[in-house]
Amino acid sequence: MGEHKPVLLKETIEGLAIEAGDVVVDCTVGLGGHSVEICRQFGNKIVLIGLDADEYAVKQAGAKLQNCNAAVFTANFRDLKKVLDELKVKKINRVIFDLGLSSWQIEGSGRGFSFRRDEPLLMTFSSQNQGLTAHDAVNDWKEENLEIVIRGFGEERYARSIAKKIVEARKIRPIETTGQLVEIIRFAVPNAYRYGRVHFATKTFQALRIAINEELKSLELGLEQAFEKLASRGRIAVISFHSLEDRIVKKFFAGLARGKKAWLINKKPVMASEAELVLNPRSRSAKLRILEKI
Ligand SMILES: C[S@@+](CC[C@H](N)C(=O)[O-])C[C@H]1O[C@@H](n2cnc3c(N)ncnc32)[C@H](O)[C@@H]1O
Predict the structure, then answer these.
(1) Residue 97 sits in the same domain as residue 24
(2) According to its record, what are the GO cellular component terms (predicted)?
(3) Distances (CA, A) of 16 to 9, 81, 93
(4) Closest by CA position to 117, among listed 125, 126, 129, 108
(5) Annotated binding residue at 79?
(6) 130 and 207 share a domain?
(7) What element of type H or E holds 175?
(8) Considering its fold, how many domains does the chain have in total?
(9) Among residues 187, 212, 237, which one ends one of the domains?
């Protein structure tokens, strides 16, 4: 399974300015990249609460954080307030959102996140998911809705043609795998696009994943609840990987700053250094924004 290198690790931890006694919440604990380093630096001086929607990630992170003052839970961060209320945690001091997927989920979860593999069309963060899957989307959704999602969440300029070809293909036989979907997209886009710098299926896959997991709605809900639970002088750090996510974070932070409820630690988002870009190409699109509650 592909190793996941935590992105903007030093910048995030420095920017959070963690202090002894803090309750730190990692809303996307993943395989523990950020949390393990926080535990290494602050040990039992802090309390760490980790969440992830993915059961496998929670198990892995839990094992790595055994020697810290940490508790890790399977939960969606859109339910952050409920999780904290159940734990009887009234206030939190530092919060991390490192959005999107871990490398292992793309490469090794078998849930259809990668257009480079032939896997069942799930695209769900949770392996126990009983709800909507990418299979439902491509086989059941109306053509207009597929087009709206692929354009809106993928910013894919060939959304219309891709949606049309998906609907044509499923009339012949159900679309069961990522491999089938990639072939449909291949025939829906112009030749030059097939050989472009960015793989021609990237945006459609991104769009379906965002829609299936309601990622943008979850982000809005997670940010609101994190801020509500945040103590005065507490900080929230968000690492986003595409413009739709970053727009939500930027707007949310700017609104709080305008209302004099918070101030922005960095006026502009922090991006990966040249050195990190060489070691971890995934950091190329990462943007870190940090805010402090007044
Ligand atoms: C980029 S990875 C985090 C990696 C982690 N910071 C590390 O360095 O190991 C994002 C993680 O967030 C989880 N995730 C995404 N959206 C989520 C949500 N709404 N609620 C909970 N977890 C979520 C994914 O399952 C994934 O494990």
Answers:
(1) yes
(2) cytoplasm
(3) 11, 20, 9
(4) 108
(5) no
(6) yes
(7) none
(8) 2
(9) 212
The reply to whether 125 sits in an annotated binding site is no
Q: Is residue 30 a known part of a binding site?
A: no
Cβ of 234 below 6 Å from ligand 1:
no
In a domain, 1, yes or no: no
* Ligand 1 and 111: CB distance under 6 A: no
pLDDT per position as a tens digit, 243-263:
999 999 999 999 999 999 999
Could you read off the pLDDT of 7-51 as tens digits, one per residue?
999 999 999 999 999 999 999 999 999 999 999 999 999 999 999
Domain ranges, residue 283: 9-104+215-293
CA 197 to chain centre: 23
Quickly count helices (H) and strands (E) in the chain: 14, 7
183 inside domain = yes
Q: What residue type is 215 in one-letter code?
A: E
What is the distance in A from the centroid of ligand 1 to the CA of 143? 30
**pLDDT of 172 higher than 80:** yes
Query: Is there a binding annotation on residue 34?
Result: yes
The owner of tokens 């979907």 is 181
How many angstroms does the Cα of residue 102 sit away from the middle of ligand 1? 7
Ligand 1: residue of 24, 28, 60, 225 to mutate (most ligand atoms within 8 A of CB) is 28
Q: Does residue 155 sit in the same domain as residue 274?
A: no
Give the pLDDT band of residue 2 (cuts 50, 70, 90): low
CB of 229 shorter than 6 A to ligand 1: no
